[in-house]
């Protein structure tokens, strides 16, 4: 048991001491501060038309738990997914394969490590929510149970499910990270849609446990105001008017059925992880179809003659950047599987025929996100394949290599956005054209800068997914392509341009530091 504990501790510390994890914690603090708006603020996170709970301890604690559970249930999967793949990439898996550790124990270690990462982030969010409640001084007493009980009964079981799904996805869909993400997103959206505020769903079908809290709130509104609340949603929404009724809600009375359902889901996830150990590859990839050259082959017969220096072609130094851009583009284009490239091409063609607003607001962000696998490791693949000793020591690595990576990413995205740009030119929407180019440059620089700063690709993948999700929800403040109307369109364009310059400077500074410390 001591070795089991020490292995979990080492894995957790190794993952929690990365730049990506620290940046995630910083984002968590910022987001948690805005989870529960004060009564005088002009936005809401639990959308119940015409009603709002008073800002007491129960409301602050449970709404914080709702937001934390929903956000981490979605984005937490992408944050912890890839733990086994990392052992493959770093070749730690070969050591594991040669050790006496069993498949079941190894998967349980990764499962517990995933769970601890998610619980650390969620615990920080709840601590921030407590501090915010104390700072805002609503006039109601602070009751710590209103924060701890929903954390124990809702967040911990939900994060257990997410951590387990991440392990099961890596075991049964090995090497298919994009398919894992798509499948999980489909499962998540389906479950949330079915259970959100539904009175007919049972506790056992509410995998993430958020419907218990929502149903308690809606039941009180229905009883107190003789309503039948049906439309309810979670998310940041600007409230145009302050005309709403307030009510005092004192928290959830946790039912035995609900608590039993949480225990059932925890048990099912643990059993599933244990069963998946029988299908775990244990880093044995002999079954993969890899075309190998024969080890023992007859050397080709070559008639050697005297080498004359004068007969050799002249050495012409080539210090240009175009060959590097070409190589980076080829590496990106050839990286994804054919089916994904076919899907991207189909979306690219559809940009020419669907309504311009649909193409600009929906299809183009989706098309960009499908390139996440190409963009995420653009600046980190050298370290992943241990080639950074060569690239950092190359001639002018900042002016040539780094610039080639940025220009290659920008060129690829501009080519994908060309149908929308062409249609905007025809419609004389020149500001929108500038913003599409501006937003395209943002994604290119963002992929490079986050990769360099966090020294990995996971943070960019999660952030890009979050950004795309918000754009598809038509949140104009984060619409980097400019398709959604905004009251200060020029101001937003200027803000994104300033962000591009800032990220570019940070990107150059961090890469220069890496080159100098080689």
Automatic annotation (TrEMBL):
The keyword Transmembrane helix applies. It comes from Pedobacter miscanthi. This is Uncharacterized protein. The keyword Transmembrane helix applies. The chain crosses the membrane at residues 19-36, 59-80, 111-135, 147-169, 181-198, 263-283, 310-333, 345-370, 406-426, 432-452, 459-477, 489-510. Keywords: Membrane, Transmembrane, Transmembrane helix.
């Amino acid at each position: 048991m001591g070795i089991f504990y020490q292995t979990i501790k080492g894995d957790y510390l190794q993952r929690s001491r990365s730049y990506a994890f620290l940046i995630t914690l910083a984002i968590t603090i910022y987001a948690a501060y805005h989870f529960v708006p004060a009564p005088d603020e002009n936005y809401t996170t639990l959308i119940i038309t015409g009603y709002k709970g008073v800002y007491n301890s129960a409301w602050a604690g449970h709404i914080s738990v709702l937001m934390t559970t929903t956000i981490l249930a979605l984005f937490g999967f992408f944050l912890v997914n890839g733990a086994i793949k990392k052992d493959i990439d770093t070749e730690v898996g070969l050591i594991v394969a040669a050790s006496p550790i069993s498949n079941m124990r190894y998967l349980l270690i990764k499962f517990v490590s995933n769970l601890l990462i998610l619980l650390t982030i969620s615990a920080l969010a709840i601590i921030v929510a407590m501090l915010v409640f104390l700072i805002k001084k609503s006039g109601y007493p602070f009751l710590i149970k209103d924060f701890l009980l929903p954390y124990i009964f809702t967040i911990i079981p939900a994060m257990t499910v997410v951590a387990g799904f991440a392990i099961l996805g890596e075991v049964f869909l090995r090497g298919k990270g994009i398919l894992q993400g798509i499948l999980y997103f489909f499962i998540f959206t389906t479950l949330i849609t079915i259970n959100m505020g539904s009175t007919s769903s049972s506790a056992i079908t509410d995998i993430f446990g958020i419907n218990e809290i929502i149903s308690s709130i809606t039941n009180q509104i229905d009883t107190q105001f003789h309503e039948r609340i049906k439309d309810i949603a979670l998310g940041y929404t600007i409230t145009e008017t302050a005309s709403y009724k307030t009510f005092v809600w004192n928290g959830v009375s946790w039912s035995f059925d609900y608590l039993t359902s949480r225990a059932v889901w925890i048990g099912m996830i643990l059993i599933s992880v244990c069963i998946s150990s029988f299908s775990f590859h244990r880093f044995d990839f002999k079954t993969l179809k890899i075309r190998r050259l024969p080890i023992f082959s007859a050397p080709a017969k070559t008639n050697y003659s005297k080498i004359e220096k004068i007969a050799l072609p002249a050495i012409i130094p080539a210090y240009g950047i175009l060959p590097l851009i070409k190589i980076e583009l080829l590496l990106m284009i050839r990286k994804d599987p054919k089916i994904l490239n076919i899907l991207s091409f189909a979306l690219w063609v559809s940009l020419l025929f669907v309504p311009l607003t649909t193409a600009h607001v929906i299809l183009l962000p989706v098309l960009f996100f499908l390139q996440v696998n190409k963009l995420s490791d653009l600046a980190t693949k050298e370290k992943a394949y241990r080639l950074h000793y060569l690239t950092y020591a190359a001639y002018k690595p900042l002016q040539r290599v780094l610039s080639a990576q940025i220009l290659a990413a920008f060129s690829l995205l501009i080519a994908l956005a060309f149908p929308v740009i062409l249609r905007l030119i025809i419609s004389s929407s020149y500001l929108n054209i500038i913003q599409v180019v501006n937003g395209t440059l943002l994604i290119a620089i963002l992929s490079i800068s986050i990769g360099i700063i966090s020294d990995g690709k996971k943070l960019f993948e999660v952030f890009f997914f979050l950004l795309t999700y918000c754009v598809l929800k038509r949140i104009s403040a984060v619409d980097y392509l400019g398709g959604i109307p905004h009251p200060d369109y020029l101001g937003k364009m200027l803000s994104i341009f300033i962000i591009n310059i800032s990220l570019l400077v940070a990107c150059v500074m961090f890469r220069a530091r890496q080159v100098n410390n080689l």
